[in-house]
Known about the structure:
Elements lengths: L6 E10 L2 E11 L4 E5 L6 H6 L11 E9 L2 E2 L7 H7 E4 L10 H11 L5 H14 L3 H4 L12 H14 L4 E5 L7 H14 L4 E5 L3 H7 L2 E6 L2 E7 H6 L4 H7 L5
Parallel strand pairs: 3-8, 3-9, 6-7, 7-8
Antiparallel strand pairs: 1-2, 1-4, 4-5, 9-10
Helix pairs in contact: 3-4, 3-6, 4-6, 6-7
Amino acid sequence: MSTHYKLETLNVNVYYGPKKVLTEVTVGIREKAITAFIGPSGCGKSTFLRLFNRMNDYIDGFRKEGDVLIDGKDIYNNRTRVEELRKDVGMVFQKPNPFPKTIFENVVYGLRIQGIKSRRALREAAERALKRAALWDEVKDDLKKSALALSGGQQQRLCIARALAVEPSIILMDEPASALDPISTAKIEELMYELKNDYTIVIVTHNMQQAGRVSDMTAFFYLGELVEYDNTKTMFTNPKDERTQNYITGRFG
């Protein structure tokens, strides 16, 4: 077990009932870098992403073999407190999913669950998270406004702020910009780039250009298998596997 990876899997197989969705995936993900998972729909990349915050636990028939490690610790052992794990591993979904509450209450939601009551602590945390999510200047005078009144791109940055407020070290993003227009997408990408100074970011994306623009490392999944994992530049200019080459050049997808 190496400890120099922030996230690591060893020989991971995943099943939903009798159906095998991931086969023998072994990978090490570096700290404070952006790692992209690419591959056609249904190839297992979102399932793989959700292993790291145990979101697959909710799916009927989910079963896993092999090890999933964060900082060298097995997160599927009986001692793991899943609530604690999810504080450390923030998640941003494909569609912005703000709660029908004010902007402020959305950001501090996780802190309230943790039992933090001090108005001042909540205010400071909200401001810090909104600044980090590059949304503060747009909403600072409207914190009491409903989050649902924000644009799609603002809602997605609000969801990123909500994830950041509880001080995670890892952020998982499942197609975070696929529901957004190009301008909002560019803002989210810029934001990811800034956040990697402080966080380990793993992103699932269908958008190859996006993976090329934002990620340091790329993993290509195909039919439940990790086909290739390499430095993004190398992978996009000189892939080692013919299937990667075909996917990247658009021969299938």
